[in-house]
Structure formats: C-alpha cells, structure tokens
Automatic annotation (TrEMBL):
Pfam family name, one: OmdA
Name listed for the protein in its UniProt record: YdeI family protein
InterPro entries: YdeI_bac, YdhG-like
Domain of life of the source: Bacteria
Species annotation: Pseudofulvibacter geojedonensis
Stretches assigned to the YdhG-like domain: 17-113
C-alpha cells in the first residue's frame, strides 16, 4: 500500500469509495474523536487511544472499531475480519451503492467512544516462552557460578537468544566455539544482538 501523508490523500487514492469515505468521515468528525493518520489510514482516537478507523478495499469500504467486540451490535452490522485471529477488532462493511444510515453509524461510534472512556479494551497477550537450558550451555552454567549468575541477570529474551544461538549449531565443535565466544558477552550482561540494536 502506498504511504499517504493526509486523510484527503487517502480518500483521493480510493476514488471509487471517496463519496462513502467522506460521508463516514463527516460522521466521525461530528463527534469528539480526534482525526489522525496511522498505518497510512484514517484513525480516530480519544485520549490517545484508537477507537475507530476508516478503510477502503477492493470490494468494500467501511469503518472498523478497534474494540468492537464490546459493542452491542443489535443490528448485526459488524463482522470479524479474521475469524480466529482478531479478538477485539470489528468491521462495518459497505458495498457499492449501499446507503449509509448516519444516525445508526453515529450511535455505534458514540457507543465505541463510551466504551473506550470506560476502559473496555482487550489488551494483547504476549506468549512468553520458557527458557529451556540444555546441552553445553547448561553444563557451562553449572560449572561456573559467575557465568550462571550473569546469565540469570539477563532478560528472558536475551537468555533465549543465547540458548538458540548455541543449540542451533549442528556440530558439537561449532556449539563449543559459539559458547566460548559468547561467555564474555554473558559476563558483561550483554545480549547476543545488542550491538545491532539502537544503531
């Protein structure tokens, strides 16, 4: 998707949907939501939190509600764009020549604003993998209290980097070589890829 620098440009780039997008935009602008551009698309926020977005695609255009799962949706207008993947996001799709019930759209938007003010949102859950020590690294940590202490002070992400780096080598000689190279880094409290970060 081409990066856009304004809402107007986004709408111009979707000229077959421009009338609908402008109509939906006017409804959104009639509320207290703040208009912004995120991910090269119009997004409407309150207190810095995403509430509603506008989008145009090949076969439909419409609005999406970032925490639409909490909307009552008594008119059955909302769909889950990616069933099984999307937990909170819901879309209201419009096809070509479909008219917009401004009052109904605004009612949904106002409910979404109220839900956001009440703090109704699904926070993403990060899947934390457990660090599993094995093989040469485990033996090295058992053999050196200093190395073990330094390793335990590292974040789980940095620990996993070292575990994966050493265990991914197929030959034992390569594993030994990698272990010897990373020992000083572990003792210094550095992550395997720290030198590439914040460059």
């Amino acid at each position: 998707m081409k990066k856009v620098t304004s809402i107007e440009e986004y709408i111009e780039n979707h000229e077959n949907w421009s009338d609908l997008l402008n109509e939906l935009r006017s409804i959104l602008l009639s509320t207290e939501l703040e208009e912004t551009l995120k991910w090269s698309a119009p997004v409407y926020t309150i207190n810095g939190k995403n509430v509603v977005g506008l989008g145009a695609f090949k076969h439909h255009a419409g609005i999406w509600f970032f925490n639409g799962v909490f909307l009552k949706d008594e008119q059955n207008k909302l769909v889950n764009a990616q069933e099984g993947k999307t937990k909170a996001l819901r879309q209201w799709r419009f096809s070509e020549n479909e008219s917009v019930d401004k009052n109904l759209v605004k009612a949904y938007v106002l409910e979404a604003i109220e839900n956001q003010k009440l703090g109704k949102e699904i926070k993403p859950v990060r899947n934390k993998k457990e660090v599993v020590l094995e093989g040469l690294l485990k033996d090295a940590l058992l053999a050196s209290r200093e190395l073990k202490t330094a390793f335990e002070k590292l974040t789980p992400g940095k620990q996993r980097e070292y575990v994966d780096h050493i265990s991914s080598a197929k030959r034992e000689a390569t594993q030994i070589n990698r272990l010897e190279k990373v020992k000083p880094m572990i003792l210094e409290g550095k992550g395997l890829h720290d030198k590439y970060k914040n460059c």
